[in-house]
Amino acid sequence: MENPLNLIKNEISKIEETLQSLRVSQHPFINKVSEYVLFAGGKRVRPLLCVLSAKALNPDLKNSLYETSLLFEYLHVATLLHDDVVDSAEFRRGRKAARNLWGNQATILVGDYLYAKALKIASSLQNPSIMEEITQTTLLMSEGEVLQLLHLDDTEISEEAYYEVIYRKTAVLISCSCKVGALLSGVEDKKAEELANFGYNLGMAFQVIDDLLDYVSAETGKDLGKDFSEGKVTLPIIFALNLAPAQEKKELLRLLKSKDIEAKDFKRAYEIIEKNRGFELTFQKARSFIDTAKDYLQFLPPSPYKEALLYISDYLLTRKK
Amino acid sequence: MENPLNLIKNEISKIEETLQSLRVSQHPFINKVSEYVLFAGGKRVRPLLCVLSAKALNPDLKNSLYETSLLFEYLHVATLLHDDVVDSAEFRRGRKAARNLWGNQATILVGDYLYAKALKIASSLQNPSIMEEITQTTLLMSEGEVLQLLHLDDTEISEEAYYEVIYRKTAVLISCSCKVGALLSGVEDKKAEELANFGYNLGMAFQVIDDLLDYVSAETGKDLGKDFSEGKVTLPIIFALNLAPAQEKKELLRLLKSKDIEAKDFKRAYEIIEKNRGFELTFQKARSFIDTAKDYLQFLPPSPYKEALLYISDYLLTRKK
């Protein structure tokens, strides 16, 4: 059986080639702005999951699977462009944010364009179930963006509210990518739903780990955690606040809310979170999402594509950045 | 036969009632921002044309026609919200722009939400032809928005380039509203295409007249033309520049490009445009679009709905604001 990592690399190459060969628009400016963000080191997680889900159910699938899978990358990038404007971001993936090069106006409008492009690709499939899935997803995502804006500084956020935020921010699109892949393979809705559940749990784990890494990869002391310095409440904080004695809870909240934190403040916050099992419990939660995700794949017949999906699931728990 | 104006008022009331009775979201904040713009005196042109087009082909149509027609209002309002951010608009329809009350961030995101909502309504129809029509329309619109941003100060704009701009800005959505109405009535694609062509020409006339009124309703001397003071090149300018002698052409361009124009400058520009038949030829062009629009309705059987569509067409040429 093919090594899952090789298979994954191979599928990513095909996605990458398709992305390179297709222009999003006939207009050079739209392409320039889009390609700046599309080729900024994205890992193609969503198209990849779409392709693997489809092939795990129907390995011989012969249609425009790769072209279709790109719609999830376009959707994702559209949200990144709008997020950067909303957050007044200076950087994205270590480079200047698009809005820093072409301004907020063009960034908003190219985001709108990529969103429209994604929906156009979806509608060309002429498959009402797929279309409903995708429009429901974008509705949940855009509603989530507004809710996140409103709860910007809410340190009272509960574990449940956090899951709701990351569901809309990350998991719903990943779940949709898997489900649409399944629907493209031609299986009945019930089987597609299993893939949707896999994607949901995988997506939740993905974001939980992302939020954990924001602390752990900053541990060296060179960096401050980005989320923490922005006062963002994520799962490590929520768990630590639940367990911390009153004094430490107060201190952690004070550090979280202070404007210009220094390395020593972040170090202290890190200590408090670690002592109160914030990181440990967060990692456990991620593992539990991954376990559930993998359970939903059990019904799949053995195949290298199934192995690849399992490999990705395990990989999430070991990644360091 | 029912008086067309009464029929139109009656249909608008039904659209208005439906709009009032449906919430766009479960979240009060999203509703507040959306409703601020949705209930700001919009004339419901797009839902109205959708409803009338459907009923002109099938007067007994019994489905969720009014609910469906709202998707065109949501799409329209979504573009207004993003336009206001892109243009840094202070006002919209005589009131503070939404971005002035809730900020650019919320305005961008609620715009995204309304767009997603519109597409969700469309997908719930489970009609691939309708979905393709709508996604193609939003793609053309969003591409047009980018192109307009790039040509912001282009005084060399040709008549053809102007038509392309107003097609994407206005006519394509109006055409889509009519065509989708036709498709909802259940007719074959060829008949729906006639309604699409009607809508295209009506939409073109609508925007041409809008651009004309920006001058003519400012004639009293109290106001400066908004487009002119922003240096925007519309059809009256294009026609006048074509016919004006070199000296007047130069003067008109100088006035158009100057930063802080006064009432007397606008008056002088108005004179030059009028003398060189800019307004007259613009109005003729609008009439020609309307004549073509009405031709496309000839195949319709006689009905009060057909009469209402003809009435709206004629009304466009006589409206004063």
From TrEMBL, chains A, B:
Keywords: Magnesium, Metal-binding, Transferase
Co-factor(s): Mg(2+)
Record has Transferase as a keyword: yes
GO biological process: isoprenoid biosynthetic process
Domain of life from the UniProt record: Bacteria
Cited Pfam families: polyprenyl_synt
Keyword Transmembrane set for record: no
Matching InterPro entries: Isoprenoid_synthase_dom_sf, Polyprenyl_synt, Polyprenyl_synt_CS
GO MF, one example: prenyltransferase activity
PROSITE patterns documented for this protein: POLYPRENYL_SYNTHASE_1, POLYPRENYL_SYNTHASE_2
Family, similarity comment: Belongs to the FPP/GGPP synthase family.
Protein name (database record): Octaprenyl diphosphate synthase
Organism in which the protein naturally occurs: Caldimicrobium thiodismutans
